[in-house]
Design a protein that fits this description.
The protein has 360 residues and is α/β, with parallel strands linked by helices. The chain folds into 2 domains: 111 residues, Aspartate Aminotransferase, domain 1 (Alpha-Beta Complex), CATH 3.90.1150; 217 residues, Aspartate Aminotransferase, domain 2, CATH 3.40.640. It is built from 13 helices and 13 strands. The strands form 3 sheets. Strands 2-8-7-6-5-3-4 form a 7-stranded mixed sheet, sandwiched between helices. The protein has a 4-stranded antiparallel sheet with strand order 9-10-13-12, covered by helices on one side. Helix 8 links the parallel strand 5 and strand 6. Helix 4 packs parallel to helix 10 and helix 5 runs parallel beside helix 6. The mean pLDDT is 95.
């Protein structure tokens, strides 16, 4: 009887709660208002002939390379950052190799590494989700072939310093070191300028978050030209669809839209963090477009909180199952009016749960 490889059978199932997302969607770190109007105009201009042709990725990669200030040979457009992670695992991981991740973090690092047959080495973050730089360096071994670090990290919103990231890349020359900058626009810290000092360093960006194009599935991976040639060997030439490629130049060209949205999100993030602090609710300062907060002491508490917020048509993400996140939820930050609505729902939900606890 046909069966999947053992490595695939051991991969944990990942089922993001995408169904029934009615209300204010603050659960998936999406842009809460959508893409640039220029992208919508471009979408309306596309005709049947454009959709009938296979997508041509290379010309748009040149545009993105100029935008990022890197060489065209250093850029690979991907079907979201997920494909970039998958390609790195397929290119560099053999069965028995080690992939090193710092947890809690994005789930797909583990899933793709396990599917490649490698052993995943998890290093837990320190107190208050501080980055365990020394512990990471100590776990690097002769079998380490991939190190994946989200910066800022999801779900904590914390960042790793340039010096610590460079030390890891320097200390693991035989490993692909991925710095996933999916939330770069909300913090402004990047390792792109250091890429040529470390041929094993890769930087990923996405157009799903700040640019509001999660539905089009497009990301970019930047790395050493020679290494990128190897990645292209296992990459489908058609994985990024023609609609996404057509819209991407308009998305990056509308700087005013992006800067306005990011500015509003940063202001709203401060409002949310200040409200949580004033209310005595534990949270972790974030450099992304979301905030992780502890709403209880158990997974039952966080699940109840999520459902009570849903009843008020505000969606937030339960992260209680992540290491160190018991009783925690992650809240995406939107615009001013959306934050007004969020804070009203938070106030009512915390009061409701407090009253329920006092009756027990």
């Amino acid at each position: 009887m046909l069966s999947a490889r053992k490595a695939v059978q051991q991969v944990p199932a990942y089922h993001p709660p995408l169904a029934g997302r009615e209300g204010l969607r603050l659960d998936f770190n999406e842009n809460t208002v959508g893409c640039s109007p220029r992208v919508l105009e471009r979408l309306r201009s596309l005709g049947a002939e454009h959709l009938a042709k296979y997508p041509e990725r290379e010309p748009v990669e040149g545009v993105i390379a100029d935008f990022l200030g890197v060489g065209a040979g250093e850029v690979l457009l991907t079907n979201g950052v997920d494909e970039a992670i998958h390609l790195l695992c397929q290119t560099y991981l053999e069965p028995g190799d080690e992939a090193l991740i710092v947890v809690p973090t994005y789930s797909m690092y583990r899933i793709y590494a396990m599917a490649a047959g490698s052993e995943v080495v998890s290093v837990e973050m320190g107190v208050n989700f501080s980055f365990p730089a020394e512990a990471v360096r100590e776990r690097i071994s002769g079998r380490t072939r991939l190190i994946a670090i989200a910066n800022p990290n999801n779900p904590t919103g914390s960042v790793v310093s340039w010096n610590e990231l460079q030390a890891i890349a320097h200390g693991a020359p035989e490993a692909a070191v991925l710095v996933d900058e999916a939330y770069f626009e909300f913090c402004g810290q990047t390792l792109l300028d250091m890429r040529r000092e470390y041929p094993n360093l890769f930087v990923a960006r996405t157009f799903s978050k700040a640019y509001g194009m999660a539905g089009l599935r497009v990301g970019v991976l930047v790395g050493d030209t020679e290494q990128m040639r190897a990645l292209r060997r296992v990459s489908s030439p058609y994985s990024v669809n023609a609609v996404a490629l057509a819209c991407l130049p308009d998305a990056i060209g509308d700087r005013e839209y992006l800067e306005s949205y990011v500015r509003d999100v940063l202001e709203a993030r401060s409002r949310l963090e200040n409200w949580l602090a004033d209310s005595g609710i534990p949270y972790w300062p974030s450099q992304a477009n979301f905030v992780l907060t502890r709403v209880g002491t158990s997974s039952a508490d966080s699940a109840e909180f999520v459902e009570r917020m849903r009843s008020r048509c505000v969606l937030v993400r339960d992260r209680s199952s992540d290491p160190g996140c018991l009783g925690c939820v992650r809240i995406t930050v939107g615009l001013r009016e959306q934050t007004d609505r969020l804070l009203v729902a938070l106030q009512a939900t915390f009061e409701e749960m407090s009253q329920g606890a006092s009756r027990v």
